[in-house]
Amino acid sequence: MAMKQKMYDAILEILSREPSFFEARRQLQLKCPEILKSVNEKTLKSMQAQYYVRRMRRNHHHHYSRDTREKYYKLYKKAKLKNEKHVIVRLAYKNDISPCLLARIILEEYYWNDVAHDRERGEGRGTLPAGFMTDCIRDIAKLPNPDLAEEIYETIVLDNFYGPAIDSIKKTCGVEYELFLKAYCKRENMCFIDEDQMREEGYDKTPDIRLKIPVLIKNRVVNWIESKASFGDPINHQQYMTDQFLPYKNRFGPGAVIYWFGYVEELGDNEETDILLLHTFPTSSEIVHLRDVYKKEEESIEKLKLEVLENNANDNNSELFEKKQDKLLTYVDLFFDSDDEIGAKKLENINLDCT
């Protein structure tokens, strides 16, 4: 769904207060029960996750400072000496940090202090091989400390926003909705190539779908479609505009973005960007194919041609017929002049169906 900015702000105010989605949902039920009737759970989860990730990035410097890291590790070791359980998770909630991010800090401190024994003041993260920490978190069997391995495994299971489990879920969800997009395009008989095919052809910027033949969606020209299995909030959308959408537009012309979990309605009000925002794949009635326009123009020409013949080639009708025929040829050439495969063919041999 496309929701108003005011509604988005009201929802986010509640979601941002609770680290647990289920508690946040309960608060929404108590304070804004009408919202839960109109906004689905996937949308709410996406909104909360985006806010939480931004907050962690904002506070990254504080949590990763040397003094804070050492404080966290001392607290962890002190708790473990008392044989306490769930230490990292409790420390994370108490200090407002992602459990998986804190687990990474504890793990790095463990290797630097208890394994390497050679960490010096001023040394950075480069003391450990690139990717070493990530591999250890993904495969805790590599850790020589069973208690620490158990603690890290617990953070992976309980963290709702970070960690290898969440990364896998996000990646799978993204692929799933890209497959939905391709299936919808095939159902609507659209000619397209996907990003893998575009990379093989040497493109540096690759939307999920590039249409070989443009279509009109809601009366706007669309040359490419990008799938986003997330909610389109103002901050993330602006970043996507800079990194992806505007480069796509500059290379391929106007396009469309589908935020499958909805977006802030005001973001789609600016038609000057030539980027159409959607929250679901358009219906058949909202899509106009070039072949449909061509067929309509062709029928109009045939009708006028018969009128010319019936009226013994009236000069005015003949002139109008020639103008409409020229218009049709020009209209089709606009789309096909740049396409070597089709542009070389004569108009009567062009097949505008993609089967």
UniProtKB/TrEMBL annotation:
The keyword Signal does not apply. It comes from the Eukaryota. Its main location: cytoplasm. GO terms for cellular component: cytoplasm; nucleus. The keyword Cytoplasm applies. Residues 287-326 form a coiled coil. Pfam families: TPD. It is found in: Cytoplasm; Nucleus. InterPro entries: CDIN1. Keywords: Coiled coil, Cytoplasm, Nucleus. This is CDAN1-interacting nuclease 1.
